[in-house]
Amino acid sequence: MKIYTKTGDAGETGLYGAERVVKAHPRVEAYGTVDEANSAIGLARSLLPEGHPDLHELLERIQNALFDLGADLATRMGSPYEKNIARMDAEDVEGLEKAIDRYQEESPPFRGFVLPGGHPAAAALHLARTVVRRAERKVVALSREEPVNPEVIRYLNRLSDLLFVLARVVNQREGVKEEEWLVKKRR
């Protein structure tokens, strides 16, 4: 099977169920940005040192979940093809909340904004967090035009929080001091 199909050469793509839409459609923007977030998480995983099997496993599970989330977004609510996909649900969101709680106990006390960076894996997690936030904004924009599974928005919101916590954990584990935001003093 060839990787190219030539079906998108006119600037259109297919949603799940064969409906054709322009590639700039808000739904395509939303799941395309989720795909970017997934790639950013993959980069972060590749930069994680070997001594973090729990983080590797967690991030791998999240990457798989993001494919499910992308399928959720690529399938309109009420589509007859819904039965073929796994929609995001409250249990998915709760799983992220449990991970946030678990890793927040390990991260340093939160004293305010920190500059994204530190260990390369932590910096990549911060970058992934910002891409997830953009994906969340795209999904919210889409939800203003047509129905979207609300658990998708909740999942992306929690995921960005988790990635922030994980970046802090990586810096903590690797002995890298976080740099705090130095607020410019007003005269």
From TrEMBL:
GO terms for molecular function: ATP binding; corrinoid adenosyltransferase activity. It comes from the Bacteria. Keywords: ATP-binding, Cobalamin biosynthesis, Cytoplasm, Nucleotide-binding, Transferase. GO terms for cellular component: cytoplasm. One of its GO terms (biological process) is cobalamin biosynthetic process. Transmembrane segments: none annotated. It is an enzyme of class 2 (transferase). This is Corrinoid adenosyltransferase. Residues 3-170 form the Cobalamin adenosyltransferase-like domain. Belongs to the Cob(I)alamin adenosyltransferase family. Pathway: Cofactor biosynthesis; adenosylcobalamin biosynthesis; adenosylcobalamin from cob(II)yrinate a,c-diamide: step 2/7. Its EC number is 2.5.1.17. It is found in: Cytoplasm. It catalyses: 2 cob(II)yrinate a,c diamide + reduced [electron-transfer flavoprotein] + 2 ATP = 2 adenosylcob(III)yrinate a,c-diamide + 2 triphosphate + oxidized [electron-transfer flavoprotein] + 3 H(+); 2 cob(II)alamin + reduced [electron-transfer flavoprotein] + 2 ATP = 2 adenosylcob(III)alamin + 2 triphosphate + oxidized [electron-transfer flavoprotein] + 3 H(+).
